[in-house]
């Protein structure tokens, strides 16, 4: 496999509706995976796990699952890693351990309602701005209006209120914004260097496997994982490790290759609203009217933004 085999075209042809539809389908799948692992993270925590435990399951399982992909790619064309090591290092830093530590660490300071707004706001806004400045994607009024509607929907879904803005929460909010910005940068690097989605997923997963997982086992050990019920542990292995760990990275990377980072960065904003729906059967949480209205607004804004032209 040569480097050329692992690259994707920079821009879709004008009027390429099948490509747009495929990107939207992958984007909805990515948002659904994001909602799924959010709901089951809350479920796992309610059954005795903590955020670091869920993180190690996500990184560890995904790293092991994608290791054969990386090994085969290395055997076929090691030069692509050696000559482009800076690109792969950037991918690992933007979407690997630093992103995970910022996202989960912020929950220690900011309330859950802020987690539904700030990282996704950064993903959407920074994805749009970086796409315009780095890749020349068009910043039209239609796209700006669409993202504005999405952000209003996020606020409604989260139920965030003024009383939740404290000095302690502000530190968590900054961490959320930094995590969202890293994720947006991940999309820019993918698109700019036309990286293969599956290979990018394997690189990020391996980097986290080699960095976060050893630190976890040295500092925390295995007692907490072994103490939970086997049903809980294996459910989280499936959801956090297999579906979310590998699936989130791959679907987002694939979506970037189809839609570009500006459009792709909008889809994660649907995750909080979809999580509110999924929490109904799993956690017994009945969606409120504000949550339903927020999801509807986010969907409308997404359609408005995604169908806007991107090329200058």
Biggest sheet features: none
Helix/strand order, N-terminal first: HHHHHHHHHHHHHHH
Q: Measure the end-to-end span.
A: 33 Å
Number of helices: 15
β-strand percent reads: under 5%
* Shape estimate: globular
Radius of gyration in whole Å, from Cα?
19 Å
Determine the mean pLDDT: 84
Protein structure class: mainly alpha
Structural domain tally: 1
Low-confidence stretches: 1-15
Residue share in helix: over 70%
Number of strands: 0
Describe, in plain words, how this protein is organized in 3D.
- It is a single chain.
- The chain has 312 residues and is mainly α.
- The relative contact order is 0.22.
- The protein has 15 helices and no strands.
- The model is unreliable at 1-15 (pLDDT under 50).
- It is globular, with a radius of gyration of 19 Å.
- 77% of the residues lie in helices and 0% in strands.
- It has helices at 17-46, 51-76, 79-83, 85-95, 97-106, 112-115, 118-135, 141-158, 167-192, 197-219, 223-227, 230-259, 261-264, 271-283, 289-306.
- It has one domain.
- Helix 4 (85-95) packs antiparallel against helix 9 and helix 8 runs antiparallel to helix 15 (289-306).
- The longest helix is centred in the first third of the chain and has 30 residues, at 17-46.
